[in-house]
Specification:
Distance between the termini: 67 Å
Helix content: 25-40%
Largest sheet: 3 strands, antiparallel
Number of domains: 2
Radius of gyration: 21 Å
Number of strands: 3
Shape: elongated
Strand order of the largest sheet: 1-2-3
Order of helices and strands: EEEHH
Strand content: 15-25%
Number of helices: 2
């Protein structure tokens, strides 16, 4: 399997996949770099996963995918709301005597 991530130090090189491991971030592939070293990379950074259709169609012109921008907007909204709630609690506690 080939590492396809453009900024990975092993990008473009071919490796043997010897297994998978799972963590809270998803599935990672264990690649044999040489006799003594293994490398763990996300599946999306290899040719195991088909390229993202939106990225292929955009031909690299877009820095962000729409789905990622929507997820970011949702995260920012939730963070702003949780901060407002925390500030209200602090102000309410300050007025109690």
């Amino acid at each position: 399997m080939r590492v396809t991530h453009p900024f990975h130090p092993l990008g473009g090189r071919q490796f043997v996949c010897i297994g998978e491991r799972y963590n809270r971030y998803g599935t990672r592939l264990l690649l044999r770099v040489d006799e003594n070293r293994l490398c763990s990379v996300p599946r999306q950074w290899t040719d195991v996963v088909a390229p993202d259709l939106e990225a292929v169609m955009g031909e690299g012109r877009s820095l962000f995918r729409v789905v990622d921008l929507l997820a970011l907007a949702d995260l920012v909204s939730r963070l702003v709301e949780s901060r407002r709630i925390a500030e209200r609690k602090v102000n309410d506690a300050a007025h109690v005597r």
